[in-house]
Amino acid sequence: MTDSPELPLLPRIRGANDIHKMSQEDLPRLAAEIRQLIIDVVMKTGGHLGSNLGVVELTLALHTVFDVTRDLIVWDGSYQTYTHKILTGRKERFPTLRQFGGLCGFGWKPESELDPFNFGHVGTGLAAAFGAVVADARLGRKRKVIAYVGDGSLTSGVAFEALNNIGHSKRDLLVILNDNGFSIAPTVGAIKKYFTELRTLPLYNEVKKELHHILEKLPLGATVESVLDGARRGLKQALFPNIFTALGFQYYGPIDGHDLKLLVEVMRNVKHLEGPVLLHVVTKKGCGHPDADRDPFGLHKPVEPKPAVTGKVEPGGKPPPAKSKSYTRAFIDAAIEVAARNPKIVGVTAAMPDGTGILEFGQAYPERAFDVGISEQCAVAFAAGLAQAGLKPIVAIYSTFLQRAYDQIFQELCLNNLPVVLVLDRAGVAGEDGPTHHGMFDIAYSRTLPNLTLMAPKDEVEFKRMLEFALTLKGPSEIRIPRENVPDLSRFGGADVPLQLGKGELLADGKDGAILAYGVMTVRALQAREMLLREGIQVAVANARFAKPVDADLASALAKRYPFVMTLEDHAMLGGFGSAVVEALALRNEAAGKIKIHGVPDRFLQHADRKELMKFLHLEAEGIADVVRMQVSGHPKPALDDALGKIFY
Q1: By residue range, what is the domain housing residue 84?
Q2: Are strands 345-349 and 392-398 parallel, antiparallel or unpaired?
């Protein structure tokens, strides 16, 4: 007779705190089931695989020890909340992760009241948690506030600003430090070395063992463990002070983040401690996946391979169609080429070496690539120092992340008029990562700053020319590129001509109206024109090239010649390229009323495939043609798709 197979535990998890009904002996098996679910789903949908596999036990321990319906867990960055989602009533919807109408890949308040913040970037969770602690004290609320933060987050300056304030305040706050040696890429700088030293204190470990041996022989009875705990803490503070104790925290750890019994025991012990407490937990990125040791970097955001497609997997996870190239790939190739001709060119990024292409640039030029960690402010100010001293820095950062360095763009770059080239990857609709990652605002937040030149290329050839041109400028510049493949515009004609500052180009003539497109929207304008020609509607298409300085002469000529000029951009309409065109004509006392701005409405856009979102927004060729038909006929603008009610937040 054989034992009957154990029934799966995951079906017993239907809502928050269902885990409290389970025995501690069940938790390792539940962890294994959750880990397998995460692997099965993320290999189909894409997402943050490695980091979430690494925190399954840690999340289970948090949910076991605390009441998540009462206590507050602030997830810094919140891309490591997959287990949290599964444990809080979203298990059945988990296969919809990052899909249109499905679960968000980050903590998301509209999904659950147990997600306190819509955080997609890291570094700010500690300050937000501290704010909640202060508010609780003012309002008389009794609950435990837990701030979850990764070691990569501590390369962000704002995290240390928060630690400084929390330690000084002496208020009750538990900080869980998840140390896996990685953020998106391996954690960089002195922080990495420091955490390695904390994990491997051989002297402390030996002294701890000897102390335990001595205390066990003393007639202290049931108080041995409490005495031992105090002695350990005092010994650690005396012999091994660290940056956290210096900032006013009671420091515990490091402990094994995959030992559920130990995690639960330690969390229960620190739960009721007063004042700032930091629990240092060491986890393994990708734990439970066969590639965890071989390629933890590659496990960050994988997708299921498609055998029919060959070639390099592009940054972002999805293999490009055959014979195509992403804009990121175009940047890598162009940057390596220009750097071969000029040894003063260097590359800088902020914890995104692979996603931005600086990883391959660094493989070509190991001494000329710099990753400053999750600190965009540092990246831009660092580049300013490089430029002031005579180098030619190219800083590659996602559009949405660069927002964090706005003040450094203003002061270090623009006010000092330093020749730094900013390459803004993932500009525009970013896709499945959602509203925290859409690059909708870079034109608006940049074009008000003096001395800054803004460009966007229509294809790979023009991108290469723009990068070369930017490196000749005496001041700062930005080049925005989208998360898609570079188009082949050969069938539309056009010549590879040198760029002139603030000058666009007329690509096709017409009589019924004109489209003035910016960057990647140029190919869509040309495609829409082809569709309309079959109906007898002839629209001109111009490629703006620059959002600052705008080609006011081109815009003026189009406005004088055509009944309307529709500006086209993959960006928020407020403050964007179209606004710049209207302002340029208004300042010349010309017919700004002929300009019709077409872009992204003044709303936060949710997550879905980029092409799907662009279609809903009438920013693909078919939708652009619809908007042009409306302008030509004078009929009302076509109604946005019903699905827009779901894609806007």
Answers
A1: 27-200+242-282
A2: parallel
Q: In the prediction, which pLDDT does 224 show?
A: 45
Beta bridge partners of 347: 369, 394
How far is the C-alpha of 47 from the C-alpha of 115, rounded, in Å?
Answer: 18
- In the residue annotation, 464 being an active-site residue is answered as no
State the catalytic residue, choosing from 35, 192, 392, 404.
Answer: 404
Which whole-number Å values give the CA distances from 384 to 96, 181, 308, 521, in the listed order?
43, 28, 45, 31
pLDDT of residue 593: 87
What's the pLDDT score for residue 242?
82
Instruction: Identify whether 376 is a catalytic site residue.
Output: yes
Q: Choosing from 284, 285, 426, 524, which is the catalytic residue?
A: 285
CA-only gyration radius of the chain, Å? 27
DSSP states of 356-417? HSHHHHHHHSGGGEEE--S-HHHHHHHHHHHHHTT-EEEEEEEHHHHGGGHHHIIIIIIITT
Known active-site residue 284: no
Please name the residues in contact with 409: beta carbons below 8 A apart, sequence gap of 6 or more: 380, 402, 422, 446, 449, 452, 476
CATH number of the domain that residue 633 is part of: 3.40.50.920
Q: Name the residue type at position 535.
A: E
- In this predicted model, which residue has the larger pLDDT, 498 or 585? 585
Query: pTM for the full model?
Result: 0.84
pLDDT mean over 225-252: 67
Tens digit of each residue's pLDDT (9 = 90 or more) over 304-356: 433 333 334 333 334 444 457 999 999 999 999 999 999 999 999 998 898 99
Asked whether residue 387 falls in the same domain as residue 523, the answer is no
Residues 217 and 262 in one domain: no
